[in-house]
Amino acid sequence: MRVRLSFEVLCAVALVAVASAPAISADTTAAKEKAEMCTACHGEGGVSQTENIPSLAAQPDQFIQWQLVFFRGGARKNEQMQPVAEQVTNEDIRLFGAYFASLTAPKPPADDNPDLSKKGAEAAAGRRCASCHTDTYAGTKAVARLAGQREEYLVKALHDYKSGVRSGGAGSAMTDVAYPLSDEEITALAHYLAHL
Question: How far from 96 is each of 30, 113, 177, 178, CA to CA, in Å?
Fold first, then answer.
């Protein structure tokens, strides 16, 4: 009796797995098709080749979702993103979050200035960046991945937080972190994180 029950349970689990596989594949396909509109700016496979445009590949699912919500609601402002975000549905937002999170992270360029990276690592430790962004700076949940992000974009983002131009989500926490940073520290932090 026990063997039969275990066999039936295994069969039921297998059927559920097989039945759900096409749905997952369909969601991935749908997300990839919808994400085509993102590639013009954010690059093929979510790896940006455009100055001051972030890579989205391997960003945490919830982070992507929240940023789209902030853009759509106007809490985060960007003249290119606003019209796009206004058109996306809640289901699109969920698809984009899962899709970009599933992509391979950008490969960082070779570090051409290890001394600057060392200063950036010291600034990151001093500002306790890893306490939110994780020890590997891969981000988590609604917190951004910083490792391998475009260097000039990181500089821009830190300046935007420092000046109060950027808000939404962890904006107040990031403003507190960025406000006391000198331009030299911002440059060093961005260089360090972009080369991880």
Answer: 10, 35, 28, 28
Helices (H), ranges, 59-164: 61-73, 81-87, 90-102, 114-126, 130-133, 151-163
C-alpha 69 chain-centroid distance:
14
Residue 106's region, left for phi above 0, alpha for psi from -120 to 50, else beta, is beta
Q: What is the dihedral of CA 104, 105, 109, 110, to 10 degrees?
A: -90
* Contact (Cβ atoms closer than 8 angstroms) between residue 103 and residue 184: no
Q: Classify the phi-psi angles of 8: left when phi > 0, otherwise alpha if psi is within -120 to 50, otherwise beta.
A: alpha
Q: Token pair for residue 103? A: 């992509």
* pTM beyond cutoff 0.90: no
Q: What pLDDT is recorded for position 21?
A: 37
Spatial distance between the Cα atoms of 163 and 113, rounded to a whole number of angstroms? 27
Residue 194 is predicted with a pLDDT of 98
pLDDT at 3: 46
